[in-house]
Amino acid sequence: MPTSTLSHPAFTRIPPWVQSKLTPIAISKITAVYDFVENECIPLEPIMKSQISSPSSRWTTQPLMHELREKAKAAGLFNLFLPKHFKESPGLTNLEYACCAEIMGRVYWAQQTMNCHAPETGNIELLAKYCTPAQKKKWLQPLLDGTASSAYSMTEPDVASSDATQIGCRITREGDEYVINGRKLYGNCIWNSENKFYILMGLSDPENPNKWNRHSTVIVPTSTPGITQVRNLTIMGYDHAPEGHGEYVYKDVRVPVENIILGEGRAFEIAQGRLGPGRIHHCMRLIGQCERAYELALIRCIDTRKTPRGKSIGSFDSNIERIAQMRLEIDQARLVVLNAADTMDKHGNKAGRYAIAQSKILIPNMATRVIDECMQLYGGQGLTQHTPLPEMWTYARFVRIADGPDSAHRHQVGRDELKTAEKFLERNKEYRRKYLKAAKEMGVEVETFHGVTPDV
Amino acid sequence: MPTSTLSHPAFTRIPPWVQSKLTPIAISKITAVYDFVENECIPLEPIMKSQISSPSSRWTTQPLMHELREKAKAAGLFNLFLPKHFKESPGLTNLEYACCAEIMGRVYWAQQTMNCHAPETGNIELLAKYCTPAQKKKWLQPLLDGTASSAYSMTEPDVASSDATQIGCRITREGDEYVINGRKLYGNCIWNSENKFYILMGLSDPENPNKWNRHSTVIVPTSTPGITQVRNLTIMGYDHAPEGHGEYVYKDVRVPVENIILGEGRAFEIAQGRLGPGRIHHCMRLIGQCERAYELALIRCIDTRKTPRGKSIGSFDSNIERIAQMRLEIDQARLVVLNAADTMDKHGNKAGRYAIAQSKILIPNMATRVIDECMQLYGGQGLTQHTPLPEMWTYARFVRIADGPDSAHRHQVGRDELKTAEKFLERNKEYRRKYLKAAKEMGVEVETFHGVTPDV
Amino acid sequence: MPTSTLSHPAFTRIPPWVQSKLTPIAISKITAVYDFVENECIPLEPIMKSQISSPSSRWTTQPLMHELREKAKAAGLFNLFLPKHFKESPGLTNLEYACCAEIMGRVYWAQQTMNCHAPETGNIELLAKYCTPAQKKKWLQPLLDGTASSAYSMTEPDVASSDATQIGCRITREGDEYVINGRKLYGNCIWNSENKFYILMGLSDPENPNKWNRHSTVIVPTSTPGITQVRNLTIMGYDHAPEGHGEYVYKDVRVPVENIILGEGRAFEIAQGRLGPGRIHHCMRLIGQCERAYELALIRCIDTRKTPRGKSIGSFDSNIERIAQMRLEIDQARLVVLNAADTMDKHGNKAGRYAIAQSKILIPNMATRVIDECMQLYGGQGLTQHTPLPEMWTYARFVRIADGPDSAHRHQVGRDELKTAEKFLERNKEYRRKYLKAAKEMGVEVETFHGVTPDV
Amino acid sequence: MPTSTLSHPAFTRIPPWVQSKLTPIAISKITAVYDFVENECIPLEPIMKSQISSPSSRWTTQPLMHELREKAKAAGLFNLFLPKHFKESPGLTNLEYACCAEIMGRVYWAQQTMNCHAPETGNIELLAKYCTPAQKKKWLQPLLDGTASSAYSMTEPDVASSDATQIGCRITREGDEYVINGRKLYGNCIWNSENKFYILMGLSDPENPNKWNRHSTVIVPTSTPGITQVRNLTIMGYDHAPEGHGEYVYKDVRVPVENIILGEGRAFEIAQGRLGPGRIHHCMRLIGQCERAYELALIRCIDTRKTPRGKSIGSFDSNIERIAQMRLEIDQARLVVLNAADTMDKHGNKAGRYAIAQSKILIPNMATRVIDECMQLYGGQGLTQHTPLPEMWTYARFVRIADGPDSAHRHQVGRDELKTAEKFLERNKEYRRKYLKAAKEMGVEVETFHGVTPDV
């Protein structure tokens, strides 16, 4: 592997063990993604923002986005996330793609220029895995080509959606159609005309004794009558136009039965496979965001205009320590996510479940902390549109609750861990047996052992 | 004091030592504020929001606000913050007004209905303290009457404004006028026509050897030619219409010399007195916000629609502990601010400086933590406009940096504290002398004493 | 109140609202306690330690302690904690005594010189409240006179003692005697001959359907045959000689039936009243410890021998901020405990339950954090016997778990709080009703209100 | 690589990317270390403790230690840490040895049974790297053979030792001898007769204009007249017998000039190379300790004797979340240290400096937090000798300050990072240039860009 390539700034933060695993094709893609983000995306951030800010075209995918997508496609940077089994795949491993995702995270919309954005990536994987060839041709191919966009619709306002068995939006078969009635939260806005269909999870068989078989997943074209977008849901006040997060009422919405994915009652089977890689992508992008926030903080530290008490912000020992702590925590977080990606590469998404949960819980927490610190270093300006920091923080905060709050994930990990307690108890009893034996042999008086008194 | 009055819910969270100091007039005002907020403000929150949300009238003070201000004024709830020396003052102590401020904090715009809102309160105190009778008649009285509104203009983009000696906006005398040139951040928007003037701090005598005498404060009517509002500054994405936070360019803005306050070079004298009580008000309002957020969290905890794993959110031991921790921290914070108010009552703003800084540092940190936890308990909805929580968090985050970041305030407190170190060192030497004497008398071998070896 | 008295350093940290409530007698006692601790105790710390360190007399109350107790008694500083209804009481309120307790906390054994130490204080209150005159004469009076010492025995190794209904040590009546069998943890060591009796809680009526009536409390003289002290329990390695914390086996230990307190099955009634004031004392002492640790940190900050990178430790901005943060948190904590004491004075121990729990949870956490920071400022020496910091930290850590872990207390507070949720839900429904009415009147479209969609 | 080997419990926590790099010899050593620790060490913990606790032999290396060292040596488990260039080295990489070190950390003295304990490991590397063949034969070989033990002596009470240029213990040449005078802290006790020599750093050339050339390192046999051990320094009350941490006075201590290492004035050259790998070993052992603490916590969670409110400790959702959080943080920490070890393997100790500092700062903090939580889950017993937790916590706390406090290390990292700020500033200017160019081309109005107003 030529050292010259890896001396490219794209690789500065990648740990040695990961660098040594990158294939030439990965090295070239990572480099290209980096150059694209640095040269084509970051400098144009304010222009993208100003295009979106026009009230008349707020919910339209902007000309600049279309332009950049064309460029990225031409440069071979489309669909980099695609697993090897896709013919369109560039063949990157999860670990390799994770390196790309971090770089894309440096501007929140860069992912979209390369057709690697949520929820598209998850939807593409889902459709590829579970659809019939006919369905794929109709729904999947346009997504891969970047000529259409889709959304995922699961969360509901009146149940605890982190427990998906409670989802209540009704899907009822009537003849050759499914009829849908309910209220859904989130999912890209119907107001954006590029959004062509929803992948919707609903309750099709409420009486089924097995609660995991009660739900189905169907494709609902956005043009279907009966869908009303009540509002766009803001996230900490941000509308996230032109994609947004809709709140929808489905009233007698009818889709043909061929729009069902995999078959009735199989929604959980489908949901299962969806989330793993997407969570890793989210987390790596957050790390990329943190790097940008960190770079802005460093710049502020040496800003010659900003010298409280006559010295630069970076001359304060307290800020020197803050900078260090951020650096340490971002790098620590990266190791967690890269390890999760590598674990998925080696042992599959299922075996990687714990490592994915670890990322999902730890990284957004780290990211909100770090970006908050960066805002604080910026003083009052740090909270305003003068910097991209508030949007970054909000995105990190959003990831901390998207796909369920930390506590739900921690609960899951904790319950899995407690299942291992019995094994350690047995081992501890074995220690104690050996101890009692040795104490007897050596004539030593027996003590309380790990909280177990000699009486027991 | 009739127990029946204090059994009113307005007093539930007020600690006994404060309750016992409340005068009958304070009790009646606190009760009235509470009833006004509960009955007239909170239920109308969404209506206020919908009035503001119309693009055509976004930067206009809304009809509902005018209506409520009339009601509050009629009910004797106007200008409650005014210190006793004002003839319009209801005569509340800082401690008593603090109890009102907490309640006003339950809805962020309730303060305005009672003419107790920032920056008006600070401006009113400033004008009352430092203006000539003629100035007072012209600028102060309309604020007290609630017929005009004002703004404060200090922060600048290109210096470290937390060190106000660096403020660079130029004020130059030319004949009978001051000419102002510079760029300012924050201060209510000029777009709102009720905003009549800025109290602006600028650099009038850059060569003065005493850096505390270089700045002046002048009144600048918003109608003066030469002021351009470049944009509204958003705070974490919120525009805070219809008041907002402007970014301004002053280009050859001319005001008559009679608009100067107190005289040239006296800006620091003026700024000094301004901040104390305002910081306490901010902090008490944050506590009121936290109480609302907390109540919403409690409601979510028993929401029968939200039952992950089949039990209510409030049945999870982890959430039970979270609720407790919030309760404990909010109540702890209240004690800090009430003590600061009481210290100001007893010993004046200057003596209260430490206690005010303590509030300024601790309370916004507590509030962001607590409200963040409440959002998390709400799941995805907690970040959306379905609850007032995101706005509350943003306000708390804003207070954490307004008037300077935590670190600047901590730095000030720390440096004051280090000045006391010598005293403790002396005392410790005295301990050691006594120890050495006693050791000698008792024939005991001398040990290292608090890190000082016997060699020294 | 003469200003001169309150300018005494004993009052430096006492907030104005407390100062204004102190009676002359309290002022004189607080002053005297301060002078005693500063002049008689702190300088002799290493001598006390060296007396205890002799292996031959490790478990003997030391000559210096006896001497100081005599001095304190002569100076009228004995039993200051005693509530007014005792004839020996100096008549201090909880609030006033709290000020004394803080000062006593400056050296961990100073409380004992003034007969105000745990567990004696709790035992004295218990015996005074629940014993017969004959019992009082025999057991209580020597404690008040300081001629005997006692211990409390409740915790057990093989149950969850934070849930006292599980206590299993058996108390069985046989004729005129109770026979005791079981294993107990904690309680001053039997090895110290001044320890005259245990107040023991055990299970006397296991079949009683009411689990709160199954336990009894009896007085067990340390001289009773059948008690074996298995070991001294160390706390983080400290043996806390000469009092220590014993682990005991009771084997057919017989006491006369007249040693029962209040009657069979009444242990919970007794335990109830015991803990409130003691917890406040503990917490105030911790605050006194923190002040000492803080003073040592300040001294280190200006130590001219310690100048990494050529500047004193206190010249580092990071340490300046650390000092400030400690100062803020200690003072915040004091307000919490003083408020709890005042609440008990006004409304009794029962009404003060929440405020006591608040202290119990927040203060030891603050104290371990603050003292840990002080150790860190001291570098390697901070962990050694060169400073009293490690013992202080250990004591704070101990208080954090004594009388049950934080989590158990938080759980209790949280469950009490959740009982109030219904009230807020009702109020929120009322808000919504008003909103719906107003929206209708004003012709405004109805929005989701605090997470409740318009559908509901 | 046979799966059967890696299914051995020794590999459970080792991440896939590390597993795939382990050579067969490493796999066999890791397995053997694990079995040795599990079967020979952990069960005998209380026996080791009871042997050390006898006052008569407290400062003697215990018979059980000698026995286990013989066993370990015979099993080929001696000196596993030795780098490949030693003929005694088993040839493990830093990464491979790190896996061994974690396992050794499960009992704090297990490292010593395998001659892999601090400070021996650092001393061996130092002597091997910088000594003459004659010195090696005399001083190094016995350490490798395990027939002697040594100590390192650097820290002093009256300077800021974290800045080693301040070290003041004088080394003066007189004829063929160096004469040493001063006071030193830490270093294994002279009371233990197996401790044969100190490697001492002192000030030999105070007038040298280059402060990095003023110090020398000499070997001082413990038998040299003039050394007095003033006391053993306890760490949080623990004496850490039979090795301990001495405080020494050197009074005219004379050693032959051939005892100098490398030559006069070269102490910093020597110190430089010493610390890297040792810090990694410390950190991995802490992780092993955390795993044990965690296992004990899990066992407590399912303890059927401990059921507050009638359910096991592990049934509380709050504890389930606590368990999860610990699991996540321990695993995160391991990735940090393993990455540091791997970086050293690839690029050498110097290039690994940042990664080593990252471990040094993050891991002890994590470990004290995690072990503290485990103690808390154990209730009161968790602080006593009934569990090994207090000793574990104390060791982690010690590592947090050994080799300098966190803040000193963070300071170093922060200053290194700030040196990179200029580069990011340049890049940001480049972004802005591109933005201004694009804005001009597209006719878009220019906005403030990352805090830089259009004026600039």
Distinctive features:
456 residues; alpha+beta; Butyryl-Coa Dehydrogenase, subunit A, domain 1; Butyryl-CoA Dehydrogenase, subunit A, domain 2; 4-stranded antiparallel β-sheet; 3-stranded mixed β-sheet; 7 strands; 50% helix; globular; flavin adenine dinucleotide binding (chains A, B, C, D)
What does this structure look like?
With 456 residues, chain A is an alpha+beta fold. The first copy, chain A, is 50% helix and 11% strand. The first copy, chain A, contains 15 helices and 7 strands. In chain A, a hairpin with a 2-residue loop joins strand 2 and strand 3. The longest helix of chain A is centred in the middle third of the chain and has 35 residues, at 267-301. The radius of gyration of chain A is 25 Å and the shape is globular. Chains in contact: A-B, A-C, A-D, B-C, B-D, C-D. At the C-D interface, helix 12, helix 13 and helix 14 of C face helix 12, helix 13 and helix 14 of D.
Give a short overview.
Chain A is built from 15 helices and seven strands. The first copy, chain A, is of the alpha+beta class.
The proportion of residues forming helix of chain A, as a percent range, comes to 40-55%
Secondary structure class of chain A reads alpha+beta
Average pLDDT score of chain A = 93
Q: Please give the most extensive interface between any two protein chains, plus how many residues each contributes.
A: A-D, 87 and 86 residues
Unreliably modeled segments of chain A: none
CATH topology of the largest domain in chain A: Butyryl-CoA Dehydrogenase, subunit A, domain 3
Task: Specify the oligomeric state.
Answer: homotetramer
CATH superfamily of the largest domain in chain A: Butyryl-CoA Dehydrogenase, subunit A, domain 3
Count of β-strands of chain A: 7
Q: Percent of residues of chain A in beta strands?
A: 5-15%
Distance between the termini of chain A: 62 Å
Form type of chain A: globular
Helix-strand pattern of chain A: HHHHHHHHHEEEEEEEHHHHHH
CATH architecture title of the largest domain in chain A: Up-down Bundle
Radius of gyration of chain A, in angstroms, nearest whole number: 25 Å
Number of domains of chain A: 4
CATH C-level class of the largest domain in chain A is Mainly Alpha
Q: What's the number of helices of chain A?
A: 15
**Biggest sheet character of chain A:** 4 strands, antiparallel
Spatially, the strands of the biggest sheet of chain A line up as 2-3-7-6
